[in-house]
Amino acid sequence: MMKCIIIDDNEIALLATKQCASKVDTLNIVGTFNDAIQALSYITSNPVDLVFLDIEMPELNGMEFIRALSQPRPMIILTTSHTEFALEAYEQNVLDYLVKPITLPRFITAVNKAQSAAEKHKLDHSDDETLFIKKGNIIIRVNKSDILWIEGLGDYVTLNTEKEKFVVHSTMHAMEQKFSSKEFLRVHRSFIIRIDKINNIEDNCISYFDKFIPIGKTYRDTVYKRLNLL
Question: Which pTM does this prediction carry?
């Protein structure tokens, strides 16, 4: 069963989402919040698998809330009365995007997607130290500690070591969930890097081996916070 919270400053909309959630056996509602700041404080000390998150809220809106979360973060399903946030939602790797008024069938579809993602996450983390990557007709064992950076290329990602580059069919979001946030940091929509290999940062660009990797605008606050910038 997935632990979930609901965040919405509109009491009627919050109750409607809660009513849908209460009809799904795989969900355990552990909290409801009218205030995103209070919800953020709750998540820092309580494990949560899934967040139903309104976008338009005072003080801290939905997108700001997502950027403020520490990694690994809960799965996010956005709830909104508008569709213009879809692109930014995609960039933030939210799981689904529900337009109000939310119907129960559409809600259940989103929850099923979350359930599948949670089960896949468990399988992917069955071995936290190594990966098995198919290269041609050979399956190669690779230590995660040997991966220096990960780069997104459309429907593929490249995992780069000092000696080899592996191309796999996956997403940056999947890679972000697979690699420890203690060692790796997503700095751009297309880049995840090892924190201990950063040389320096100038003009929001990271000097990294012989590469210069930009820090994405939506990732800057998280990056500098993670680096303990003085």
Answer: 0.56
